[in-house]
Amino acid sequence: MACLRHWYRCRDWSCGGQWREYMDALKTWVETFTAAGIRLVFFFDGVVKEQKRPEWVKRRRRVNGEVSKIFHHIKTHKQQPGRQLFCLPSGLATFTSFALRSLGQEVFCTVQEADYEIASYACQHSSLGVLGQDSDFLIYDSAPYFSVEKLRLESLTTILYDRHKLCQSLALVVTQLPLLACLLGNDVVSEEKMHHIRNEAMATYR
């Protein structure tokens, strides 16, 4: 999703359908990495695991609420809202996977938890890194994790999220990061469910 937001910067976004402009952005992106000798592999969510469905439904409802705000703004002001209400066009992820294949790129549609499949692939193939914007990748002891949000395409520079430095500052070891993710809450274990455990742990620590 973070990559889609990075790619889709079309000005007339509320109408959708800026396909040619979007394809040009994808083509430029692919060509820049290819020219630098970097082979890209793309992963798209294929399934929503049963234990993640409540969180998935919650997010879909939140998106529906945001879309309602966009329609209200257009109806009231007769113009497209600012980027603070930006919402990706429906179906963009599906269309993007086909677009990338048409550009000769390797594309996977996941059959398990997407983050897990990406981390596993990166580890098995000794990948240069994973490019995205999801803190879940920090808990996997896999390839280096880079920020797509901070990516500067013209210079191919970005920020590295260093899990070892994170562990150092938190006085943890890498193998304890999954436990930390559970205590903080995630897509499977809600933050609310872990609230009392966190409070007790913090009280003991103090």
Automatic annotation (TrEMBL):
Pfam families: XPG_I_2 (PF12813)
InterPro entries, per the entry: Asteroid_dom (IPR039436), Coact_PPARg (IPR026784), PIN-like_dom_sf (IPR029060)
Alphabetical list of CDD domains matching this protein: PIN_FAM120B-like
Any single Gene Ontology cellular-component annotation: nucleus
Domain Asteroid per the UniProt entry, residue ranges: 91-172
Record family assignment: Belongs to the constitutive coactivator of PPAR-gamma family.
PANTHER family referenced in this protein's UniProt entry, alphabetically: CONSTITUTIVE COACTIVATOR OF PEROXISOME PROLIFERATOR-ACTIVATED RECEPTOR GAMMA
Protein name as it appears in the record: (spotted green pufferfish) hypothetical protein
Organism from which the protein derives: Tetraodon nigroviridis
